[in-house]
Amino acid sequence: MGVTNFVGEAWRTGxxxxxxxxxxxxxMMFRPAITVFYPDVRDEVPPWFxxxxxxxTDLRTGEYKCTSCLxxxxxxxxxxxxxxxxxxxxxxxKVNDRFAIDMSRCMxxxxxxxxxxxxxxxxxxxxxxxxxxxxxxxxxxxxLLRLGLKYSKAEDPGPKASRSTTPPWVFHELTNxxxxxxxxxxxxxxxxxxxxxxxxxxxxxxxxxxxxxxxxPAAEAATKPEAKAxxxPAAExEAKAxxxPxxxxxxxxxxxxxxxxxxx
Amino acid sequence: MVAWWNSLPPTVQVWxxxxxxxxxILVWGLLNFAICxxxxxxxxxxxxxxxxxxxxxxxxxxxxIADLIKLWVKEYIQPNNVDRWLYLIAPxxxxxxxxxxWLIVPFxxxxxxxxxxxxxxxxxxxxxxxxxxxFMAGWGSNNxxxxxxxxxxAAQMISYEITMVMSVIGVVMMAGSxxxxxxxxxxxxxxxxxxxxxxxxxxxxxxxxxxxAELNRAPFDLAEAEQELVAGHHxxxxxxxxxxxxxxxxxxxxxxxxxAATLFLGGWSGPTLxxxxxGLGNVLNGFGAFVNPVGSAVLNWGLAVSGxxxxxxxxxxxxxxxxxxxxVFLAMWIRWTLxxxxxDQLMDLGWKFLLPVSLFNIFLTGxxxxxxxxxxxxxxxxGSFTMRLLGWWL
Amino acid sequence: MERTQELLVNMGPQHPSTHGxxxxxxxxxxxxVTACEPDIGYLHRCFEKLAEQxxxxxxIPYTDRTDYLAALLNEMCYxxxxxxxxxxxxxxxxxxxxxxxxxAELQRITSHLLALGSxxxxxxxxxxxxxxxxxxxxxxxxxxxxxxxxxxxxxxxIGGLRNDLPEGIIGTxxxxxxxxxxxxxxxxxxxxxYVYPQWxxxxxxxxxxxxxxxxxxxxxxxxxxxxxxxxAVLRGxxxxxxLRKNLPYSIYDRLEFEIPVGKNGDCFxxxxxxxxxxxxxxxxxxxxxxWLAENPGPVMAKMPRVLKPPKGEVYHRIEGARGEVAxxxxxxxxxxxxxxxxxxxxxxxxxxxxxxxxxxxxADIIAILGSIDVVLGEVDx
Lengths: 264, 394, 381
Hints:
heterotrimer; A: 11% strand; elongated; B: mainly alpha; globular
């Protein structure tokens, strides 16, 4: 009948509208706002977050690990890495003149980190990169070194194990190394170069409490999880080691600032 | 003060009074606009799990002032080939028509700008200006989107005017007068349960839907359907001209809510400060069981203050504002929940569904009142008793 | 003497409702649409030409960016195509396959949430759009913990994955909403118990929404097949065809799930199919989680350092979020692909607009466009 249809339709419409309104009322009254009040409060960054690529320093010697092998520049799909080097006539080693990454084009794909055989590049936690001029978004060697200090470890630069089950760039402990710890062996940062035959010694703040100055066991413990590629039993010990980075980034809220690099 | 007023010649009284009332209405309208705007943004934010404006003032509550300043200093971008007079005047007509509705809203006992004999019909008449304003804006903008929006808007508003007035006729029948102050007094006599909301449930629901359609608010905001037509009839307006449309919309919303509060929820009627104090005193006295000095003091103060006109007015305004904002809240809650209806579905709803229902409501009200009177002299039985109860209620 | 004229209205490319930079040229007779033609190309980024100049692994981030709302599904298509080129030389570890499928289904949930949310917003209900983002943020958080990126991942590699799942991401089946952004079980439980019923009650059950979408844009099954529709558009018209069941790839033949199929082929059915597919995806994720929790293992096969697939060509198709995503890779034995052709479902579905829109009103164009679910990144590549 027309009338029952009419009333039935009205009833169904009304019921569905009331159900919808009940939901929005509950959302309004009983569920909290999910707004994060940036920049007063920043969301914590998970351990494997891919921020901009930065260069690591070997904290034992204070040297940068990059040997200008150009693997990262070749691996980069968007060709943002510019490397210039010359050969030192005496030691016949490559000396890096310029290492620049154009962050305005970097797509944070992380191929450079995977390609680097010397564990020099790492994807940091920095994501706040606003600059006034786009030219300042080209990060040069010293900027990358400074930003990479907190991810640096005290260990020998060596070929890193590939294809482990954890990304090799997981930071087991963020260090609080400062700029003064960059020894700048080749004088790149403008400091006078160290004399030849200089034997570096691990600085006191990076030594473990009871260990010897070289802190080799500590370095080995740090590199061990990377060396184990597919071992199942070791998955447990890796798990313990990785549980730590969960808490670390939360303690460093101010470290996501890429502003310290170069000019604003 | 009263003596000075009475000493003025009548024409001066009329003109001065008129100017004062008009300025008060304007200021009241703007105040309501600010509160409605803020409420809309905060409410929509809370529904959507956000916080809305946050940084301007304490928790963002003075955002409308920042908005107003921004719109004031914004550049007027006027397209070429607009129909000059139509384009420029349209926002003001909308604004004026919104404010005119506030003229007949009773804020308290004898506290009303103009107590017109025709009451409700005046609102229906004034709403026509809104239609004109929409159409002028759409046509004068020299823009296809605006024209589409204006056509839709005009058709929608005209259809729902009739329905809205029809839904209110039931209230008029029960109160026996078109004057809004009489309607409020009728509700005040009947007490809380007698508020026209309860006997006139059908009329209330129809009125709610029809007034949402009149106001161009979701789910009926086709005239300014953002996702389809950018902004409909006010696409080509910027700065303060656009602000006028927004002012018109929100002041209209507040005005319609005030009318709804007056017609269905009892307007300004509610316990005054004196009555509340007297009631509290009674409670403290235990209704005469254990009379104590505190209770008696409160009771006596309440009784003494009950007659004060100013305090009663303040109480009236308070209750009216509360009920008005209940409706405003309801309108906003509906807006942020429901999707939009299409234009032909909107027309179907107005003409084929709401108008018959409101006519049915009038029929029902009239019949039950007549039946109640007719049953007056007959012997008491369940049927006649129910009818008389209904009749009393209606 | 009065005359009436058809109105030519241009919707877009900048428009609050189009799903990207799409331009629709619409001919109107009052409110009725007489013709509707889409105009694309505003987001063309030369993906296919670029792919010829990159090595095989370097193309993977580019495939992410075609359908950026469900990036891992695209990566899966390309990576599996190249693995097919290698033939038996590569055996992708089982754990990698399960993780790929799980991530793909989570991406499907992500993409459908956005499709539903933006369609609801187009129809006027703004709130569900924000609820969709609230839930997508939780998914983004999860993906960030697993892959490092929120929306664009570069996670799959030819031969497996970049890295295994981090510790604790799987969670326990008892996890609730407070863990929804940290563990996958938390999110799945939250989705099943809160998000899915909320969508059903708030939008799908809403009579106004049903009035707006039922009997609008009806696509008959014969038309759907003739116009190469796929995915939710095809299933909404009643054709029971899902590549995961009909032409299984990866490990889908081991998983149990159903295919929701619509009845009338209108906008409401396509909406309903997407909603139900989200639920089915969550079932698949639960099965994968159960397997993954039990079976640790390697996630990357032994691959040479420089990838040079043998000469050949392959056409690999998967069930993407919007339909059939396919990738035609031609290899000439070198390090760079000779040709990569990307078949995107949104491009094919846009040709349905001139078919479905005439005869409806302006408001229906938006509903039809929303139900077809185009993403311009995919259309223009």
